[in-house]
């Protein structure tokens, strides 16, 4: 990841003063009035980080519009406290904190975006008595990502236009801290792009994707994926889980009417011998295609322990990562 970040720094340095003339997808005002509440450069970076097109919608990828069916695929379970029919995660509150660190040289800044996300995880299920019941588990998730900014000016009067966002990390979220004995963690994600490239991630908040105009300067760092409608999303996710039974791992992407959720299939499993299992899940057999809707989105992998859904009293425990992409 250090090599990837170093390459990114070099590409940003090559951009230099050309940044201000590029056609970058960014939240930059063109008038003489600073954004609300912005009184200095640090405030401006925080404002633009929080209002970045990707940052604004990451948690929306992992919330549901309604209680949706379980989907296809078997869990391989033997016993369960409940038989879930439908489930959904509903976000009721998001608190965002942005911390800015200006790098030596005063030309690059990193905005760390932390979110506390609370809500209800709802399960429509059949209990042991054969009754249909609605189970609600309150949750508090946390997410983190980094947005990189480049200084493009030192204008004292229009200070809020001195920095522009140039890259984002992936977003990493989930239950924190995770309940003892119910831990689940995504540890690796591979995204196979239509152009033949593969994005391999093991540390989401240190893996950076350049915004699209930076491709003009070449280099080895990845760009934010740009997908066309009907492109198939192909990826694999590796999970380490304390559950002896198969976890629920889902692919989520899109927003609003174009939101999709598909269960991923387990393709391999290894008993680590220490009370955890390493499992690989794939979109193999899932017809996950990009909707015909332009905009900024995340393809998210959402991993939940089996007991999160199949036990009415067991704690909610999840791990999720989001990869930003743009549909053009």
Structure overview:
It is a single chain. This protein is mainly beta. The protein has one domain (2-17, 36-327). It contains 4 helices and 18 strands. It has helices at 2-15, 41-50, 58-61, 306-310, and strands spanning 68-69, 83-102, 108-126, 132-151, 163-169, 171-175, 184-192, 198-201, 208-210, 222-223, 226-227, 234-241, 248-253, 260-263, 265-271, 277-282, 295-304, 318-327. The strands form 2 sheets. Strands 1, 2, 3, 4, 5, 6, 9, 10, 11, 13, 14, 17 and 18 form a 13-stranded mixed beta sheet that branches. Strands 8-7-12-16-15 form a 5-stranded antiparallel beta sheet, with no helix packed on it. It is globular and about 70 Å long. Residues 1-7, 9-28, 72-78 and 214-220 have low confidence and may be disordered.
Quick summary:
The protein has 328 residues and is mainly beta.
Task: Note the main attributes of this structure.
mainly beta; 4 helices; 13-stranded mixed β-sheet; 5-stranded antiparallel β-sheet; 328 residues; 10% helix
């Amino acid at each position: 990841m250090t090599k990837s970040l170093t390459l990114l720094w070099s590409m940003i340095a090559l951009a230099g003063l050309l940044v201000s003339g590029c056609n970058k997808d960014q939240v930059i005002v063109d008038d003489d009035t600073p954004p609300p509440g912005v009184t200095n450069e640090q405030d401006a970076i925080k404002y633009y980080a929080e209002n970045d097109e990707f940052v604004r919608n990451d948690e929306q990828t992992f919330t549901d519009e309604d209680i949706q069916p379980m989907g296809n695929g078997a869990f391989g379970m033997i016993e369960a406290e409940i038989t879930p029919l439908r489930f959904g995660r509903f976000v009721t509150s998001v608190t965002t904190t942005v911390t800015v660190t200006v790098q030596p040289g005063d030309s690059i800044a990193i905005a760390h975006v932390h979110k506390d996300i609370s809500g209800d995880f709802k399960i429509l299920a059949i209990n042991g008595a054969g009754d249909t019941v609605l189970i609600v588990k309150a949750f508090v998730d946390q997410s983190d990502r980094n947005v990189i900014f480049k200084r493009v000016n030192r204008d004292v009067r229009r200070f809020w236009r001195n920095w522009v966002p140039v890259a984002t990390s992936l977003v990493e979220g989930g239950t924190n801290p995770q309940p003892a004995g119910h831990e689940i963690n995504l540890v690796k994600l591979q995204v196979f792009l239509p152009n033949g490239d593969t994005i391999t991630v093991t540390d989401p908040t240190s893996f950076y994707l350049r915004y699209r105009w930076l491709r003009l300067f070449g280099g080895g760092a990845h760009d934010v994926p740009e997908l066309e409608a009907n492109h198939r999303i192909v990826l694999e996710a590796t999970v380490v889980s304390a559950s002896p039974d198969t976890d629920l791992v889902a692919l989520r992407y899109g927003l609003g009417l174009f939101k999709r959720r598909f269960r991923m299939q387990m393709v391999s499993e290894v008993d680590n011998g220490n009370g955890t299992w390493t499992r690989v899940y794939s979109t193999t057999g899932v017809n996950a295609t990009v909707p015909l809707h332009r905009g900024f989105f995340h393809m998210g992998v959402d991993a939940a322990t089996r007991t999160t859904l199949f036990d009415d009293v067991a704690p909610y425990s999840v791990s999720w990562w989001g990869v930003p992409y743009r549909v053009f």
